[in-house]
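Each record in this resource describes a single protein on a pair of labelled lines. With that in mind, the following record should read easily:

===
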Amino acid sequence: MKFIDQAIITLKSGNGGNGIISFKREKNNPKGGPDGGDGGDGGSIFFEANKNINTLIDYTFKKFIQAENGESGKNRNQSGKKGKHINLFVPLGTKIINYDTNEIIKEFTYHKQSFLILQGGWHGLGNYRFKSSTNRTPKKRTVGKIGKTIKIKLELSLLADVGIIGLPNVGKSTFIRSISSAKPKIGNYCFTTLQPNLGVFFTKSKKSITFADIPGIIKGASKGAGLGLKFLRHLEKCKILLHIIDLSIPCYKKIIEDIKIINKEIKLYKKDLYKKKKWLVFNKSDTLHKKDIKYKINKILKQEKNITKYFIISAIKKNGLNTLCKNLIKTI
C-alpha cells in the first residue's frame, strides 16, 4: 500500500430534518388535533485512531465527505429518521489541522481514540409540539438546522521511539530489517527507501522499541534536492536519533564530511530536531579489520567533539545490534 502522510479534505455534517404540519383526519374524528412529527437529527462526523492503519491514502480519493441528512417528520407524530453518523479512521500520530487558520484541532496518540469533529444539525419540531390549551390547531413548525462545514488538513507523524537518519546506502534499511520484522526494500542505489518504514524490536522481557527509518538525506535536501526533507517530521516525536554511518568508506575525512552534511541539513530543517539526543552507529564493520576500525573511529572522534555515544555494528551480520538495543532500552 502506498504511504501517504498528508491529505486535504472538506467535511460537512448532515442537515437536521424539518418538522411538519399535519392534522389527524380520521373517519370518526375529521377535525382531529395536530400530529406533525419532528425531523431527524443530521449525521455527525467522528474521527477514530486505529493502530492497524499507517497511511492516509483513503483520503486522497475522498476530497469531500458528507454525513447523511435527517429526514423530515411524518404524520401521526412520527419522527423522521436520523442521518447516519460517519466514522473516519486514521493512523496513530495523525493531526487534524484547520486548513484556513492552521490551528491544530486534534492529535491522535492511542488506539481507538475518538473525536467528534462536526455535530449534525439539530432536528426541526413538528406542529404537535406547539399544541396548547389556547392553541388547539397550531400551524407552526420549525426547520432543521443546517450541518456545519470545515476544510481540514490531515498530517501524519509516525510515532516511534527511535529515528534512523543517514545518507543513502549506509545500511539503514538493512539495520531495521535485522532488528525487526519490517521488510523495507533494499538495493545498491540511491533512494532505495522512498517512504518511512516502522520496525519494532522486542526484548526477551517483552519490552519493545519502535524504530522509524526515513529515506536517506543528501546534501541540499533542505533546498529540495533528492527527496528533500518532507519526511523529517516523522522523527520529531522520537526520543533518540541513530545516525547510521558507512564505516567502509576508505577515507575517514569523507566520513566526517558525511556526518556534517546530515547535521547541517537537519539543523536547517528544524533546530529542535537537531538538538535531540543523537548516537552515531558505525555500520559495515564486517568489511574492515579491527585495526582499521579503531584508526578511523579515533580520527572521527578527534574531529567531532560533540559525539556523546557511538556503537560499532554490522547490520547485515547482526553484529553489535543487541548491545545497541540494550542501551536504547535503558535510555528510552
Observations:
- The longest helix spans residues 252-269.
- Confidence is low (pLDDT under 50) at residues 185-192.
- The chain has two domains: 1-156, 162-331.
- The radius of gyration is 30 Å.
